[in-house]
Each structure stands twice: as structure tokens, then as C-alpha cells.
Amino acid sequence: STMIFCSASANAGAVLDGIAESGELRACFDAGYMPFEMKSKNNSYIGFDVDLGKMMAKQMGVKYVPVNTAWDGIIPALITGKCDVIMAGMTVTAKRNLKVNFADPYIVVGQSIIINPKLKGEITSYKDLNDPQYTVAGKLGTTGEVVIKRMLKKAKYNAFETETDAALEVINGKADAMVYDMPFISIYAAQNSDKVESILEPFTYEPLGWAVKQGDHDMLNFLNNFLRQIKGDGTYDRIYDKWFKS
Ligand code: ARG
């Protein structure tokens, strides 16, 4: 008798084939997440993910195409084929892993905090923020939001669409603190050292990974081998130093 197999592997290689045929590697991200993806003054996209994406496209012999997408729509954008890969500092979480596949983590970060300067000395750990007298700002749909809801249950939470809107809330005093990924907090605090204080030491463990469609083993294999190569030949360190050491 004939057996008919129906599975995700029926589409094996489709995304990689699409990249080769179109000559484009389309990478989804949500700009504003320093230093991974930002919009430069001349309206181009720059950052750690952007440079790594460009390097990947170069090795593939195709063009790097940035696809700037609102954070809450980024997984749907991948699933509906608006991009080939999410390269957006996305934390590998169990919940997201139910919808997408992640390549091996390319960096590990964690949550840290900026506080309004008037709270200096009063807030010395995230635990101090778990109090109804405090308002904490975060970005919609991020792991920062998950952490605020889970670990700072007693505080009031205000959600914002963008990183900068959440951070501004701390500067203008409407929020006492913002909880977000350490690299962003570190750069933001340095750029606004006269307006905010920070507690940088990360209090969560968050591996970041590039995401592909469920079942896309070919793309995953490509990403993991690309990562292994650039980590071994110094390319990763050179790009890392450009964005994280200045
Ligand atoms: N790592 C955090 C998360 O996965 C924040 C990522 C935000 N990325 C961005 N491109 N805006 O939720």
C-alpha cells in the first residue's frame, strides 16, 4: 500500500531556496533596541543584528533586506513569510519556542533597571520595586514585561510600544523605573547620565537567538554553521566590539 507523508518537512529548504532565488535575505526586527537595531540619522538601519545580518547575506551572496516590524507583530510576520528570519535580540523563551524555532543563542543578556534619580539609594535591587507605591515602565510583549508581571506583581505596570517611550516615562517622573534588557539600559543610562540612574547587574538569564519558521531545519542548520564560523574566525568578536565596547 502507498503511504502518504504530510509534515513540515514537505517544505524543506523552501526558505533557503527562496533566498537564493530572490537574491534577498529579509530579516525582521523592531528598531529602537540599542545596540542591536537602531534607525540612524540618515534613516538607515544599524546595529549588532544588522551587521551580523549583512555579513550573513554577504556569505550567501545575496542582498540584506531589513524588515522593520512592530514587536507584537514580529512572530506573525515570520510565520506569514514577510521575512526569512527574525534577527531582533529575541530572547529564547519556552512560550515563543512553541511557535518558532531558534538557532543557537548568539549572546546572553538579562534584565536590568533604570530608575529616576530621586530613588537613588532607596531602590538598590529589583526586589525593592515590588511595592504598590512604585510604577514600572516596560515594553509591550517583551521579556521585560513578563518579568515585571511575574516578579514585580505588587508594583503598577505601564506598558509602552517603544523602548524610548518607556524610558522617557522615567525621565519625566511618571514612572519610577524601567525594566529592560541590560545592553539597552546600559547605553540609555550612559547617554542620559544626568537624568537617570541605573542598576545594571542583570537579574534574569536570557539567551538571545535568531528565529525561523517551525520545522525549517535547513535555515537553522545554516544559521548555526554561520555562527560557529564567525565565532571561530574573529568576525563575531570584531562586530561585537564595534557595538558593545565604546
Ligand atoms: N529580548 C527582549 C525580548 O525578547 C527584547 C527584545 C526587543 N527587540 C527589539 N528588536 N526591539 O522580549
Describe the structure.
The protein has 246 residues and is α/β, with parallel strands linked by helices. The protein has two domains: 15-108 and 207-244, 3-Layer(aba) Sandwich (D-Maltodextrin-Binding Protein, domain 2), CATH 3.40.190; 111-199, 3-Layer(aba) Sandwich (D-Maltodextrin-Binding Protein, domain 2), CATH 3.40.190. The chain has nine helices and 14 strands. A five-stranded mixed beta sheet has the order 10-9-11-8-12, with helices on both faces. A three-stranded parallel beta sheet has the order 4-1-5. Strand 9, helix 5 (143-151) and strand 10 form a beta-alpha-beta unit. It is elongated. The mean pLDDT is 95. The chain binds arginine (ARG). Residues 29-30, 32-33, 36-37, 71, 88-91, 142-143, 181, 208 line the site of arginine.
Write out key terms for the chains shown:
single chain, 246 residues, alpha/beta, D-Maltodextrin-Binding Protein, domain 2, 2 domains, five-stranded mixed sheet, 9 helices, 14 strands, elongated, binds arginine
Q: What is the CATH homologous superfamily assignment of the largest domain? A: Periplasmic binding protein-like II
What is the domain total for the residues?
2
Percentage of residues in DSSP E strands: 15-25%
Gyration radius over CA: 19 Å
Number of strands: 14
Distance between the termini: 66 Å
Overall pLDDT, averaged?
95
Order of helical and strand elements: HEEEHEHEHEEEEHEHEHEEEHH
Helix segment tally: 9
Query: What top-tier CATH class of the largest domain fits best?
Result: Alpha Beta
General form: elongated
